Please model this.
Amino acid sequence: MRLLAVCLAASVLSWSGCSRTNTLHSKEAVKSAIEAHLQQRADVMYSALTLEVQDVKFSGDTALVQATFRSKSSPQIAVGVNYELHRAGDHWEVKRSTPAGGMGASPHGAGSASPPPAPTTAPQSSH
Model:
């Protein structure tokens, strides 16, 4: 009976640890970290944008994220940003960001004082 109780307790503890890891390794967790990062920045009008997490690649304590920001007033206007996040205990923190095109300074990166790039309209077909 004692062995059964110990096994049950070990199972519950291991399940709760896995659950915490699965929650941390999710699009929702990285999206929350990016939102928290942007809400702290006075030079970003985050309330006018919708954040879409396109892709996340987890590798140990690092998450590489491809995100798209869409204008709430004109959803066809969008800009892509790549993020590098690092795990800080039970949450993620933004360490670096670059425009999806890879050119120019990061609009959201740590210590960056430059304003975000103007959203661009997605290319239209010439047909």
Notes: The helical segments are 2-24, 27-39. The two ends are 75 Å apart (CA to CA).
